[in-house]
Amino acid sequence: MRTLFIDCGMGAAGDMLTAALLENTGNVEESVKKLNGLNIPGVTFTFESAKKCSVTGTHVHVLVNGEEEGKETHHHEHEHTHDGHTHSHSANSLHDIEHIVKDHINAKETVKENILSVYKLLAEAESKVHGEPVSQIHFHEVGNMDAIADISAVCFLIDELKIERIVSSPIHVGRGTVKCAHGILPVPAPATAVLLQNIPIYSRPEVTGELCTPTGAALLKHFVNEFGEMPVMTCESIGYGMGKKDFPIANCVRTFVGETTNNNKETITELLFSVDDMTGEEIAFATNLLLDSGAKDVFTTAIGMKKGRPGVLVTVLTKEDKKEELLRLIFKHTTTIGVRERVNTRYELDRVITKEETKFGTIKKKESSGYGVKKSKYEYEDLAKIAKNNDLSIRDVLNNL
After folding, report:
1. d(CA 140, CA 182)
2. C-alpha 16: how far from its chain's center?
3. Buried (b) or exposed (e) across 280-295, using 16+ Cβ within 10 A?
C-alpha cells in the first residue's frame, strides 16, 4: 500500500508540509508549476533550497500579488480583481473560503472537498474556542490567502502522490507563547489545542516557540489515518520541508513515501457479559455508547441462560488502552455484575477510505488489501443518503453507479 509517513518531530505547518511533499514528487520545479496552475487568486508559489543544522531541504514562499504575507504575526488585507470580481487577501468566513475554492481554484473535485473539509475543522475549532456558531466564525491568520494556498497545496500534492495511507509520528507542539490577531496566546494556540485533541502530542524544554500551527494541525487531523511509530515500509522518497526559524534541532518536517507490507496483526481484547433483564432499547443504547467511546466493535448473540431464561451475550472488542474506560461504561449502562476478558490475535487487511466521483456525486469507499487480495465497499451512510434523496433502493443505487 502506498504510504506516507510524516515525521513531526518539529511540529507541522502548512508551508513546511508543502515543501516536504514537493520533494517527494521527485521534481520540485515541475510540481511548483502545477501548484501555480491551481490559479489561486493572486497567489504565486516559489521555492528555494534551505539548510537547517547542515541538512538541506526546500523552503516554499507564497506570494500574494507579489508580496509575502506574515503567517502568524499580523493580519492585513489588499484587494485585487479576478474574472471581473474583487477579492480580498483574506477570507473572513467559511462562506468566503467556499467561494474561492469552488469558483476559482483549478483542481479536481476531490481536492476541493479536502480543502473545504480542512477549513470546516478549523471553523469548528474556532467555534469551540470563542463560543460562537460556525456560521459566525471570522478567520484571521488562517483566512489569509497564503494559508488558503498552503492548505490547497497540501491537498493537491497528497492527491498527486496517490497516497493511500498516512501515518504520522506524535506531534511536537513547542512551548511558550505566540502572537496572533487575538493577542498573545499560549502554545499550542487554543484552536490548535482543540484540533489536536485525541492525538498524541508533546513538548521539549530545549525548543521554545510555536511548532504546530492551526493549519498544520487541521491538515494532520483530516488526512492522517493513524499516529504512532513509522511503519515497516520500503521507502521510495524522502522530503525535507524547512521552516523559517532556527532552533537547536533542525527545523523541518520530514516525509517518507513508500510501500508498506500488508500482513497486519494486532492484539485485541474481548470483553464479554450476559444479561437477561434488559430491553432491546437499553442494549442498543449501551452498544452505541460503547462504539462512540472507542470500542472496535460491539455485537450481540442470543443465548439460553439458567432456568431456561432467554438472554443476550454482549461481546465488546477493544484495544488494551481503551479497556478500563469501556469497563466503567459497561457497569454503568448495563445490568451485568461481571465481565469476562479474553485476549486474541487479530489479522486484518490494510484499509483506507477513498472517494469516488459518480453520477450521484462523491461517495466514500472503503478499500481493503493484503494477503494477496483486494476488496472494496461503498460506505453505507453515503448510499443511504443517495437512496433517500432520489427515491431509490440501495440496490438501485449500486446498480447505477
Report:
1. 9
2. 16
3. eeebeebbebbeeeeb
Q: Which stretches within 63-144 are classed as H helix?
A: 94-104, 109-130
What spatial distance separates the first Cα and last Cα of the chain, rounded to whole Å?
A: 26
The cell numbers describing 378, all together, are 461503498
Phi, psi of 176 (to 5 degrees): 100, -140
C-alpha cell at 366: 472503503
Which cell goes with 198? 485525541
* DSSP per-residue letters across 253-280: EEEEEEEE-S-EEEEEEEEEEEESS--H
Q: What angle do CA 350, 9, 24 make, to 5 degrees?
A: 60
Residue 231: φ, ψ to 5°: -75, 165
Residues 6+ apart with CB under 8 A from 375: 349, 367, 368, 369
Q: Which run of H or of E encompasses 35?
A: helix 28-36
Query: Domain boundaries in the chain?
Result: 2-260, 265-348, 359-399
Q: What is the DSSP letter of 310?
A: E
Q: What are phi and psi of 379, to 5 degrees?
A: -70, 130
Q: According to the model, what pLDDT value does residue 138 have?
A: 63
Domain spanning 265-348, CATH architecture? 2-Layer Sandwich (3.30)
Q: What is the mean pLDDT of each run of 10 residues along the chain (401 residues)?
A: 94 96 97 96 94 94 82 35 40 80 93 93 85 65 77 97 94 88 82 92 92 94 91 93 93 94 78 96 96 95 93 95 94 97 87 86 87 87 93 93 87
Q: Are 227 and 198 in contact (CB under 8 A)?
A: no
For the whole model, what pTM was predicted?
A: 0.65
Structure confidence at residue 87 (pLDDT): 39
- DSSP β-bridge partners for residue 364: 355
Cis peptide bond prior to 188, omega within 30° of 0: yes
